[in-house]
Write a structure and sequence with these properties.
It contains 25 helices and 34 strands. By secondary structure, the chain is α/β, with parallel strands linked by helices. Among the domains are: about 210 residues, Spore Coat Polysaccharide Biosynthesis Protein SpsA, Chain A, CATH 3.90.550.50; about 100 residues, no CATH class; about 240 residues, Spore Coat Polysaccharide Biosynthesis Protein SpsA, Chain A (Alpha-Beta Complex); about 30 residues. A six-stranded mixed sheet has the order 5-4-3-6-11-8. The protein has a six-stranded antiparallel sheet with strand order 18-17-16-19-20-21. The chain has a five-stranded mixed sheet with strand order 26-25-24-27-32, sandwiched between helices. It is elongated, with a radius of gyration of 37 Å. The N and C termini lie far apart (about 95 Å).
């Protein structure tokens, strides 16, 4: 019999006198009252001696099956000391009861406990059915298996008994109590700020007010002045509210009007605590936010004002998205702390200026004898940062150029972006710039509307009309012209369009370095032996950063990785001679852990196969310990087929590096290959720098300017994917090359697309130590349409930069006349 049920049994009775009937009526009423409420009293009160329910290690029989009752003390479940009380507000501010079910304990409940549940200024417990047990994948989960409660829906009984449990065991130890679902995310820092601003000694019933949707309106037995707090985004009650309501929970359960648990809770609070849910609908709707997208809620972009200003977010149905949301919120918290750090540095610099202390002496300044203002020096873990950089006051004039060449021009932003520093002065606004502008406008609007409730007005953003942006040594400066709408809703209502200029300086917060080994962050332990430490020095010694560190006797886990060079080759003997010279200088002389496998195809015109073989043998004789192999083939050359032959000769755990004979490299490139290629996790497709035609750039085919990186002599090959680093096992996993592709190109694009579609991470970044030396591109007219177009596009890209081509055209007006004549011939009807 569940609470609230009434069962009538008919029976034949003898006719008795009025006194006997009256006595029987009284005894029956008393007995029925006791039986009807026995199930409510026993689980939460003291268990009788003749009943084993609730005793340590006890069992009871339910439908013929023995079921073990949770025997832990409530204080032990939530790890609460008996000495803790409501006055310890630092750790006993709020108690959170999460309603869940057995099937969600190892997924949703675990995600809640491991994210925001572990950061509460209080305690948390998960309430489920009486047969529930702690999941194996989360043995520390504070689970309360409510006796006589199942996981059926609607969960009125679970909700009310959860509140009674919280009051009975923790009512004198916490100021506030939060009723939550297992699919809600709570920003604990903001929850604490809200609760500390409200008096918990008064009856409070805080949540997102509701009266039912359009279909339920008028069917929930609510009076015109009654409402309820919707359960999904969370409901907060003060201890005074619980004190008033809990004694009447039995009555509220016996008198249910609807199947909605939150509606019935609201009715019970209204009746016995005398308070409705907070009526500030717009305010509570924003801070206790419910997304109506269902299972798709919070699976997309999280950079939204609703997410940033909310205290609770509901619903988060999938545990991975709960972890993702928590990680995003921690990132916001890190950003807030970094901003606070910059503000403190500015305060220090400002005070030092008032004390007339030279800013250059701040880092070494002593507050007292042997007591430095900045005790930790650069390079230590507790270093507070460089005050000369972080302490500069906010403003668009933080960076002051000393000569004309140091002046940084502004980029203009409208529907497009205009830049003097780019060879293409007008271009589309890139996604990173759009995202930055959205961040700025969101923060600016939040600042403008911070006191909107007190002032009775709100300002809404409409669009960015235009703006300017630049990046200097201290940070990013932005000037925006915003179109806004001003709405006054208190007093005389006014709606006006307004324009405002916004000046924003985003300060850099200093350089942070994190050591990662094969995708896992390395955190040295305090007191660890030097030879066992995988410190930043051991990983980056003699690296491209130019840092000089002491060398240890232990094996470097990065440098010990063997790179297997796979070089497809057909003809081009002189270019191959240059490649061998670079390989000898970078890999063989310093004894790098590398191996070279050359897959040599016969060339249809150039007969240099014997010279190539002879050169390889000479190098092997010069370096007997070098691992250099050569495979020859007389088939028609195909880069995909050549690399497939090379891959087949390697082992599954070999680190492969696909390279072309036109590439020159340094040992820094080898270091990044080892760092950025992670077995069964990450593939590395570096963006190489490709040189322009030196005959056009320098008027000299032999001039290279020692491989200088600049917009004048080359470009970053963003759409080239032929240079790649990956393990053989991962190469097979993503599908390998399409061997049906013949001739020039396309095989690398196909491999890259397979990598992106796989569940492995594809990492791309420019590498200034991988340079594609210019060579003439000969496009075979027999190539397929897409291959021929790609080949011709590559040839056009390597001709020269946009500014050089423009200067050539401006210097030769006949080129423009010829182009106009050709265009007119093509577009005329006669043509």
């Amino acid at each position: 019999m569940s609470i609230g049920e009434v069962t009538v049994h008919s029976a034949m009775r003898k006719k008795r006198g009025p006194k006997s009937a009256l006595l029987g009526l009284i005894l029956g009423f008393v007995g029925g009252f006791f039986v009807a409420n026995f199930r409510l009293i026993v689980p939460l009160g003291r268990t009788p001696k003749n009943d084993t329910c609730g005793y340590p290690g006890s069992q009871r029989v339910f439908q013929g099956l023995p079921i073990k009752i949770n025997s832990m003390d409530p204080m032990d479940i939530v790890h609460l000391s008996k000495d803790d009380n409501v006055n310890n507000s630092a750790t006993n501010l709020v108690f959170v009861g999460v309603m869940t079910a057995q099937k969600y304990l190892d997924s949703r409940a675990k995600a809640v406990f491991e994210t925001w549940g572990s950061e509460l200024p209080g305690k948390i417990a998960f309430f489920s059915s009486e047969t529930s047990t702690v999941p194996d994948n989360c043995p520390d989960l504070p689970l309360v298996a409510l006796p006589y409660v199942d996981d059926s829906y609607p969960p009125q009984k679970k909700s009310f008994l959860m509140l009674q449990y919280m009051w009975q065991h923790f009512g004198d130890k916490f100021e506030w109590f939060l009723r939550a679902d297992d699919d809600v995310y709570v920003r604990t820092d903001r929850l604490e700020k809200l609760l500390r601003s409200v008096d918990s000694k008064l009856p409070r019933y805080i949540g997102q007010a509701g009266r039912g949707n359009s279909e339920e309106f008028g069917l929930l037995s609510l009076e015109y002045d009654e409402n309820f707090c919707m359960g999904g985004p969370g409901v907060v009650v003060s201890r005074e509210t619980l004190r008033r309501v809990v004694p009447h929970i039995r009555y509220c359960l016996k008198n249910l009007y609807t199947t909605h648990e939150d509606v019935e809770l609201g009715r019970c609070v209204q009746k016995y605590a005398g308070i409705p849910c907070t009526w500030s609908y717009e305010q509570m709707q924003s801070i206790l936010y419910h997304n109506s997208s269902g299972d798709q809620a919070f699976t997309g972009n999280l950079k939204r004002k609703e997410v940033h200003r909310a205290i609770t977010l509901h619903p988060v149905k999938s545990p991975p998205y709960m972890y993702r949301l928590h990680n995003y919120m921690r990132g916001l918290r890190i950003r807030e702390l970094q901003h606070l750090k910059v503000q403190l540095h500015r305060d220090i610099r400002s005070m030092m200026t008032e004390l007339r202390i030279n800013p250059d002496a701040i880092q070494e300044y002593e507050l007292a004898k042997n007591f430095s203002l900045f005790p930790q020096k650069s390079g230590t873990a507790d270093y507070l940062g460089d005050n000369q950089v972080l302490g500069v006051s906010a403003g668009l004039r933080a960076f002051r150029p000393k000569k004309a060449s140091e002046v940084i021009p502004w980029d203009f932003i409208s529907r497009s972006e205009y830049s003097l520093l780019d060879s293409n002065p007008r271009r589309r606004i890139h996604n990173d710039v759009k995202e930055g502008l959205e961040d700025i406008t969101r923060e600016v609007m939040a600042s403008i509307n911070a006191c909107s409730r007190q002032r009775g007005r709100v300002v809404e953003e409409r669009s960015i009309l235009y703006g300017y942006r630049r990046v200097d040594a201290y940070g990013a400066d932005t000037v925006l012209d915003l179109l806004l709408v001003y709405r006054k809703y208190r007093g005389r209502k006014v709606t006006l369009p307004v324009r405002r200029h916004v000046y924003v300086h985003q300060h850099f917060t200093g350089l942070e370095i994190r050591e990662v080994l094969d995708g896992v962050e390395v955190i040295p332990e305090a007191g660890e032996a030097q030879e066992e430490q995988k410190s930043l020095q051991s990983v980056l010694r003699n690296s491209f950063l130019g840092l000089k560190f002491n060398t240890y006797q232990n094996v470097d886990p990065i440098k010990s990785k063997v790179i297997h060079f796979l070089l497809p080759l057909s003809g081009r003997f002189e270019i191959f001679r240059r490649f061998v010279k670079v390989y000898e200088q970078i890999c063989l002389v310093p004894s790098e852990n590398t191996e070279l496998l050359i897959i040599l195809f016969a060339h249809r015109i150039e007969n240099t196969m014997n010279e190539t073989i002879s050169l390889v043998n000479d190098v092997k004789n010069k370096y007997p310990g070098a691992k250099i192999d050569l495979i020859t083939s007389h088939r028609n050359f195909s880069r995909a087929v050549a690399l497939e032959i090379g891959v087949s000769k390697c082992k599954d755990d070999d680190l492969l590096f696909f390279i072309d004979v036109d590439i020159v490299f340094t040992n820094s490139a080898l270091h990044r290959i080892r760092l950025n290629t992670v077995y069964m996790k990450q593939l590395y497709f570096p963006i190489v720098f490709s040189q322009f035609d030196p005959k056009v750039v320098y008027d000299d085919a032999k001039r290279r300017d020692s491989y200088v990186i600049s917009n004048y002599n080359g470009y970053w090959r963003e759409y080239g994917f032929g240079i790649a680093s990956l393990y053989k096992r991962d190469f097979r996993f993503i599908g390998g090359f399409d061997l049906s592709i013949r001739g020039w190109g396309k095989e690398d694009v196909d491999l890259f697309e397979k990598a992106v579609r796989s569940n492995l991470t594809t990492f791309r970044a420019p590498d200034k130590h991988l340079i594609h030396v210019f060579h003439d591109v000969d496009c075979d007219p027999n190539l397929s349409g897409s291959q021929l177009m790609m080949c011709e596009g590559s040839r056009a890209d390597t001709y020269a930069g946009t500014d050089q081509l423009a200067n050539i055209i401006y210097g030769h007006p006949e080129y423009l006349r010829y182009a106009k004549t050709l265009k007119s011939r093509i577009t005329t009807p006669a043509a």
